[in-house]
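Much of our argument rests on the idea that a fold can be written as discrete symbols. In the encoding step, the backbone of a single protein was reduced to a row of integers, each denoting a local shape. This step matters because it turns folding into a mapping between discrete strings. For completeness, the protein is quoted in full, as a sequence line and a line of structure tokens:
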Amino acid sequence: MDLGPHTITLRFAGRGEYGPCQKTGTLTVTTAQMTTCWVGSFAPGVGETIKLQMYLRLAASGAGIPGQTITWRIDGDPTDYSGVTGSDGRVTRYYTIPATMAIGPHRITVSYAGSQAYLPSSTYNTINVRVATRPWVGSYTGSHGDPVRMTLLLKRLDTNAPMPGELLTWTVAGDPTLYSGTTGPDGKIAWTYTVPQDMAIGPHNITVDYAGNTTFATSRFVNTLTVTEQAATVLWLQSPTGPPGATVQMRFLLRLVRDLSGVPGQPLTWRIAGDPNVHS
């Protein structure tokens, strides 16, 4: 049938007590519109969840096409997936990378079968599966001027093995400096942070980032440095030896963490297992 309008003629010849009649209308034949599919690329680690967003659009205007079924497949996953486009022509799904999926690139293919109004189309992109990683840093407490000794760690999640020779970057909320360092043979970085005098009292996020590479996935870990009004202290004691009835000399020290200097004039209490008394 040619493109354009075509007259529809409807007739009733009449019968018995009913007289004849006729009505005309129009069937307009148009060209089905060209479409395009779209999906982004991803680089997750095994076990991580990605947000898949797939679009069906008109090729001419880029406008989303709602209410149409699109399908997709991911190499290395035998499942056929499908979804119906929303008002903006988009289908959104969350996809967790299976533990059995091989490290490396996997094609994701998105297809639309077409309809009377829209021509079929398809596209593909890549999910580059990498080894999942996890940086780590402990939680710490310190006051203004204290040197806080921190340990940062990077490991791969498939074997839990440390990752030496990798660059980590980190920040402390309230401090504009971006810090960085390379992990040692044990996957660790030892770092001493002097709490700034103007840092606000309270918790501050320590955010550690690993940028990843073609084999290892990007990752982040957040913990807390709590700044207190009191100066951090540490205790030291001598472990004496003596028989029952003997008088032994005990030595105790209270020191500042920041410089290990002694803290004078402060009360200490101690107990000895087997002795019910509290000494001071």
Notes: The chain is about 0% helix and 50% strand. The first strand starts at residue 4 and ends at 12. The chain has a mean pLDDT of 91. The CA atoms of residues 49 and 96 lie 4 Å apart.
